[in-house]
Recover the amino acids of this structure.
């Protein structure tokens, strides 16, 4: 388990405590909320805690909104929230209780979907899935899940086909960041399902060249 | 000439001066003119070639002076203008009374002969009259900027005589030219003189061009159009070419004889167009390439004049291609029909094919350097035709493999093909040329080095002549660079050095142990890196089989993965051996499951129940696919080559579009092989992962070099 490299909670609490009473009250409540889910020993919210947290929110922990929340937090390690990360998000969302937090979800989704933010979120999602062992790539099944989660709403047809292809092909066993970014560009730029503006002589990752070839073959 | 004496006397001498300065008598116009007419009449008689008629110097002076006086009087007795106006009238008079009638009554050649004569006369007449009327040129004409006497005089002839007859004259002249073309003798001097009239009378050649050349060229075009159509139907290609060359040469000479030199270019253009350009396709259709060097050379000469070599080289290319492809087809057909026991082994048939290809190349190369004067279009045509022919597989072998086999057979001692030293060198030269036509040259080099080729020749002492081996290597080095030949040179050196050492060793043994050593030892020292890996197993049970079976000494059952781990062979090799022991004719091992393919989940058990009627059985171990190995090795080398090329390019460019990077990479490597574009993309992605490159954030199709 990676140890949080952040400073200890108490010093940060002192540093970030606002001047007004209202603000400091809010901070207190946020911290308190944190500790209801955090593990005593590690001082972080661990996967179990997150599950509980999600059940209170009435949102499945595989929901994209949780990923968005993680992004808002700047959470570094999948499955764990540190106090700093927790504070960052909840402060920005002005939520110090479960009910308030629930209410902010639509706003959060809107914020993430803003074009200026979405690319950052998309990139974050990939990095979030990297582990100690796999520092540069994520495995195909994980990539498929992630694509579904992150791009599924906006680009359902492309994502469905792409997931099918990724599962079918055997040349690549993992996806790297370059390919991941390529998927996003593909969904945004290429006409679907006509694919008429796709040019394999350009710098598209080879996996997408193969994908397009496969699509074209299977159309007929 | 009466000279005017300037009065210098004073008033006292007025009388004397007046007497001295004798006012000459004023000549009235008609009076003076009468004198001139007399002179002109005499001139006419001279022109008519009357005997004994001529101008004495007194007569001449008189006429000159008459004009002079009339032109130097003060007004109103200065008759310059009138005289200037009357001067051409003299000529016009003579022309209408004498010249025109004489021409009118003649036809054809006689007409132009008459014209020629009359023109000569006219020039003489103008010359004389100009002398008489000369004084007009001194003052009157320059002052008024009028045409000179000569010009005026000549214009008379042009306007009254020449213009009236020029169309007829042109027709007659072109008619005579056609007669000459048909082989008749004509009066060339006459034609030259007549055409000179056009030149002399026309200002700046305008008359000549418009009134003669246009019609002449049209006539020429018509003539050759008819001729060429007739020839095309009747003649063979060589005959046609010969005639064309002959007639074109004659046209060129024609210019020298009577045409103006400026006509040459256009004339040749017209004639060549009609004879050659318009019939190119038909001529080329009739072209046969059967050894008529002279005809081909002629064709080349003629067509290079009209800049029409492209269609000729195209026909040549098609011809070479056709012959080459028919050889390929023959070889393919023969290979199918023969019994195919050893499909991988290159036999006499394929070697014969290579020999024929070499011959085809030599023959056509000779055409290119000879008849086609080494012209680059034809080199290109030959190259393109052979590139296609060499891209075809014959009997499952690429041409790379076939050429390597051929080299093997002529270099090896006791090979199927036996040639003299000179012939060997020539053959090798041609093979090297042919290699340049192969796209994937690196394949040739690998085959030449490995599979039954150089390596085995050296190891098993089957090198026919080391000189030839070295010569071949140096030819290859010259043409394709060092990278491929250095390994092979190393192999040769190893053997030479070894031989040297071996001799020393034997000498030593002899010296110390006498001529009966206990052990016959011969050693070959090979430097790794030069040599491919070999398994020289000639024993009945191949090494790998024995090793595998020995594993079962310790355990009756072994799984696939256990066997792989303990045996330390590649997966491919393990599969091969297991297959031969468990799925072939003799099941020495039992396999679970008992299907006929080896999979990683299989388990093997020693078959203790194995018996056979025979005491000795032969368990075949099918040879590993050497060819596949060569191809795999080449592919691995290619990956490295592509990586190196990409890094080199990006290092120097720092930033490049995808398209440019790929294009440059392909170009850099084209000397050795044609890289697959997909493979290049793969390597680029790999380099991105390894952080040699990155995608340019600002330009979506570009890459940046990461130092």
């Amino acid at each position: 388990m990676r140890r949080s490299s952040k400073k200890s909670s108490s010093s940060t609490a002192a540093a970030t405590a606002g001047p007004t009473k209202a603000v400091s009250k809010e901070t207190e409540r946020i911290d308190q909320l944190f500790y209801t889910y955090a593990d005593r020993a590690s001082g972080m919210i661990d996967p179990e805690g997150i599950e509980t947290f999600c059940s209170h929110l009435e949102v499945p922990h595989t929901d994209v909104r949780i990923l968005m929340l993680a992004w808002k937090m700047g959470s570094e390690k999948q499955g764990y929230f540190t106090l700093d990360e927790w504070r960052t998000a909840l402060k920005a969302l002005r939520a110090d209780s479960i009910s308030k937090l629930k209410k902010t979800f639509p706003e959060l989704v809107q914020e993430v979907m803003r074009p200026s933010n979405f690319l950052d979120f998309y990139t974050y999602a990939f990095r979030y899935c990297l582990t100690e062992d796999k520092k540069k790539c994520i495995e195909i099944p994980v990539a498929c899940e992630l694509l579904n989660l992150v791009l599924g709403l906006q680009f359902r047809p492309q994502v469905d086909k792409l997931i099918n292809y990724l599962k079918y092909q055997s040349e690549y066993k993992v996806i790297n960041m370059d390919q991941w970014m390529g998927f996003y560009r593909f969904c945004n730029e290429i006409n679907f399902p006509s694919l008429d503006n796709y040019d394999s002589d350009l710098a598209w990752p080879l996996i997408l060249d193969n994908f397009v070839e496969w699509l074209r073959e299977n159309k007929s | 000439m009466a000279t005017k004496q300037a009065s210098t006397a004073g008033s006292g001498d007025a009388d004397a001066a007046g007497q001295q300065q004798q006012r000459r008598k004023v000549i009235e116009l008609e009076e003076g003119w009468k004198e001139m007419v007399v002179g002109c009449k005499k001139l006419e008689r001279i022109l008519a070639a009357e005997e004994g008629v001529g101008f004495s110097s007194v007569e001449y002076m008189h006429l000159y002076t008459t004009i002079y006086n009339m032109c130097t009087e003060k007004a109103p007795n200065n008759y310059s203008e009138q005289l200037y106006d009357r001067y051409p009238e003299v000529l016009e008079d003579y022309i209408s009374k004498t010249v025109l009638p004489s021409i009118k009554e003649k036809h054809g050649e006689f007409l132009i002969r008459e014209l020629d004569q009359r023109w000569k006369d006219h020039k003489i007449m103008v010359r004389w009259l100009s002398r008489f009327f000369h004084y007009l040129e001194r003052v009157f004409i320059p002052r008024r900027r009028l045409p000179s006497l000569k010009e005026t005089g000549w214009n008379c002839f042009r306007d009254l005589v020449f213009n009236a007859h020029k169309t007829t004259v042109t027709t007659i002249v072109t008619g005579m030219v056609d007669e000459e073309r048909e082989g008749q003798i004509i009066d060339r001097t006459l034609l030259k003189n007549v055409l000179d009239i056009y030149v002399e009378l026309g200002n700046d050649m305008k008359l000549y061009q418009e009134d003669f050349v246009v019609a002449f060229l049209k006539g020429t075009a018509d003539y050759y159009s008819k001729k060429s159509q007739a020839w095309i139907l009747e003649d063979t290609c060589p005959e046609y070419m010969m005639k064309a060359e002959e007639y074109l040469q004659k046209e060129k000479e024609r210019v020298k004889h009577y045409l103006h030199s400026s006509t040459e270019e256009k004339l040749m253009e017209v004639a060549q167009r009609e004879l050659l350009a318009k019939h190119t396709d038909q001529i080329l259709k009739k072209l046969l390439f059967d050894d008529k060097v002279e005809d081909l050379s002629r064709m080349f000469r003629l067509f290079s004049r009209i800049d029409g070599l492209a269609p000729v080289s195209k026909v040549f290319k098609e011809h070479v291609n056709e012959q080459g492809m028919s050889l390929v087809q023959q070889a393919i057909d023969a290979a199918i029909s023969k019994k195919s026991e050893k499909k991988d082994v290159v036999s006499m048939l394929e070697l014969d094919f290579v020999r024929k290809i070499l011959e085809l190349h030599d023959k056509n190369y000779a055409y290119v350097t000879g008849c086609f004067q080494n012209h680059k279009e034809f080199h290109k045509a030959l190259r393109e035709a052979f590139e296609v022919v060499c891209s075809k597989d014959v009997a499952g072998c690429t041409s790379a493999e076939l050429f390597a086999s051929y080299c093997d057979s002529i270099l090896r001692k006791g090979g199927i093909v036996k040639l003299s030293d000179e012939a060997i060198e020539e053959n090798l030269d041609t093979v090297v040329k042919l290699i340049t036509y192969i796209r994937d040259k690196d394949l040739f080099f690998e085959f030449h080095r490995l599979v039954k080729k150089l390596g085995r020749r050296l190891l098993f002492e089957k090198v026919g002549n080391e000189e030839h081996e070295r010569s071949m290597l140096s030819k290859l080095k010259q043409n394709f660079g060092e990278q491929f030949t250095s390994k092979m040179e190393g192999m040769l050196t190893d053997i030479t050095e070894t031989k040297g050492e071996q001799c020393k060793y034997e000498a030593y043994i002899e010296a110390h142990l006498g001529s009966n050593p206990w052990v016959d030892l011969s050693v070959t020292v090979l430097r790794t890196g030069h040599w491919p890996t070999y398994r020289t197993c000639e024993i009945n049970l191949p090494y790998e089989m024995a090793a595998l079976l020995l594993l079962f000494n310790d355990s009756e059952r072994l799984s696939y993965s256990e066997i792989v781990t303990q045996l330390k062979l590649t997966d491919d090799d393990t599969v091969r051996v297991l297959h031969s022991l468990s799925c072939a004719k003799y099941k020495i091992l039992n396999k679970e499951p008992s299907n006929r393919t080896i999979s990683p989940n299989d388990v093997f058990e020693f078959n203790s129940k194995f018996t056979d009627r025979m005491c000795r059985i032969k368990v075949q171990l099918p040879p590993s696919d050497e060819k596949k190995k060569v191809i795999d090795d080449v592919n691995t080398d290619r990956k490295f080559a592509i990586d190196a090329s990409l890094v080199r390019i990006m290092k120097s460019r720092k930033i490049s579009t995808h398209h440019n990077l790929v294009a440059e990479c392909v170009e850099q490597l084209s000397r050795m092989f044609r890289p697959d574009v997909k493979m290049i993309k793969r390597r680029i992605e790999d380099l991105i992962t390894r952080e040699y490159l990155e995608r340019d954030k600002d330009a979506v199709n570009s890459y940046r070099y990461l130092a």
In short: Residues 1-13, 16-21 of chain B have pLDDT under 50 and may be disordered. The radius of gyration of chain B is 49 Å.
